[in-house]
Amino acid sequence: MELSRYLRVLRRRLWMVVLCPVVAALTAGIVSFLLPPVYEAHVSLYVRPAQPIASTDPNGAAVTSDTVLRTYASWMTLRPILDSVDSQLGLGLRYEDLAKKIVVTPQTNTLLLDVAVRDTNPAAARDIANQLVADFIDAVKKTQAQQTQVSPTDNLVITAPAVLPDKPVSPNKALNVAIALAAGLVLALGLAFLLEYLDQSIKSEEELTARLGILPIGQLSFVPSGKGKRGELVALDSQSVASEAFRALRTSLLFSTVDHELKEVVVTSAQLGEGKSRTAANLAIVLAEAGHKTLLIDADFRRPSQHIAFGRVRNVGLSNLIVQDATENETILAVDGVPNLWLLTSGPTPPNPSELLGSGRMRELIAKLRNYFTYLVIDTPPVNAVTDASILAAAASGTLLVVEQGRTTFPALKHAKEMLDRVGARTLGAVMNKVHASAGSYAYAYGYHPASANGQHAGPNGAKVAESPATSQSTKDKPS
User: Fold this and answer.
1) Which of 268, 341, 393, 416 could cross-link with 288 by S-S, CB 3.0 to 4.6 Å?
2) What's the fold here for domain 205-465?
3) What is d(CA 100, CA 111) in angstroms, rounded to the nearest whole number?
4) Dihedral of CA 422/428/434/435: which sign?
5) How confident is the model at residue 238 (pLDDT cuts 50, 70, 90)?
6) C-alpha distances in angstroms, 103 versus 121, 130, 435?
7) What is the mean pLDDT of the segment spanning 84-89?
8) In which residue ranges of the chain is CATH 3.40.50.300 found?
9) Strand 112-119 vs strand 39-48: parallel, antiparallel, or unpaired?
């Protein structure tokens, strides 16, 4: 991943990058304050070995002072010494528990042993350290006195007895919090990039181009549907940001086809629920508002929805027109309140949708309608679900893919693009749908609000903008 992609990941997972270190640091701080303080007392013991020290192996070298120090360090924590300390001080501890409190370390390049004792009671740490060294010196002297053969004896001197420690050595609250903070940050970064690697959803327009080579030509913010009959038709509110976004999409779409004539726009998606029907309906509205005679065709026989959005019934529609048991005047109806816009609903669901859409009569019908209208906006099923969209896209002059931010996956969109390429469809680009905008962003700055329960929209200053009735039959002339 390039640097820009790293930065995008960090922006998307910023809450995780911030939250994990904070939680880790707070947890470490709370635990550190709850743990009892531990004090450490030290005794410094000088050991002057007798010289020379003979080896028990006649062929071996003389025993060094370093060997003597390590031997004494191990001897000091053996059971007989510790049992004596426990008895002298009346501690009542098990040998294993007492041994855990003691660390004896030979000091490098010296003749000193450092005896460290840790305990939650500072007086106990001091007393154990002093008693331990005293009992050890006695044990060494007794052992040397019992030797049958005299040789020089080692000299053990306490150079610094243990004193009462005044500050605990653990827990180190500041260090624990710092370590937890760093560990939490590392964990958060690792988890963020792991989730990014596992997450195949599309989150930005840049990813469309970088990973799939698809041109992004529009971005539609997330807008809740209104509760009125025409709640899906957000482009009807001319003062809303949603309407402006569709007008921008219209401009991008028309500029993307300056080198060839654009008549039919097939609107589809990779999978269900990504907003293709809503996009098709609102795109048709803004095309009509620009003065272009536009026909919106619901070619999704399996899950038709345009008749619901526009408050119509689909007793007659496209399927009747293809099999020629209805006329254009009976099936193509003008939309009230939107000049230059007509609607052709799906009609009854046929038993063979793919065959019907791929038939010669369908091609003849499209060719005929091209002469009546400037643009045909065709709502189709998802590409990956059935072949209907691919069939229509192969004969259309342009196809628009609707991508839902954070939901459409790269594998699904890649497969859809490959399906369209396989039939020779001209993919104009992709529109990013349901892009979430935070407070203070463009959408909020320009005062867009979703429709109210009575079908009205609140304008920038709170004024109500009434919707046009959806169910009345148009009296406009049919296209000729």
Assistant:
1) 341
2) Rossmann fold (3.40.50)
3) 24
4) positive
5) confident
6) 17, 13, 62
7) 94
8) 205-465
9) antiparallel
Q: Which CATH number fits domain 39-160: 3.30.70.1130, 3.40.50.10320, 3.40.50.300, 3.40.50.261?
A: 3.30.70.1130
- Number of Cβ atoms within 10 Å of the Cβ of 39: 21
CATH 3.30.70.1130 placement within the chain: 39-160
pLDDT, one tens digit per residue, over 3-35 is: 776 787 788 788 888 999 999 999 999 998 999
pLDDT level of residue 427 (50, 70, 90 thresholds): very high
Q: How far apart (Å, rounded) are the C-alpha atoms in residues 180 and 28?
A: 6
Query: What local confidence, expressed as pLDDT, does residue 435 receive?
Result: 87
Contact between 111 and 69 under an 8 Å Cβ cutoff? The reply is yes
Look at residue 231 and tell me whether its pLDDT is greater than 90.
no
Check the CA dihedral 268-269-272-278 and report its sign.
Answer: negative
Q: How many CB atoms lie within 10 A of CB 70?
A: 15
Strands 332-334 and 264-269: unpaired
According to DSSP, the residues that pair with 248 across neighbouring strands are none
Tokens 């964990």: give the residue.
Answer: 187
Instruction: Please give the backbone phi and psi of residue 35, each rounded to the nearest 5 degrees, phi first.
Output: -70, 140
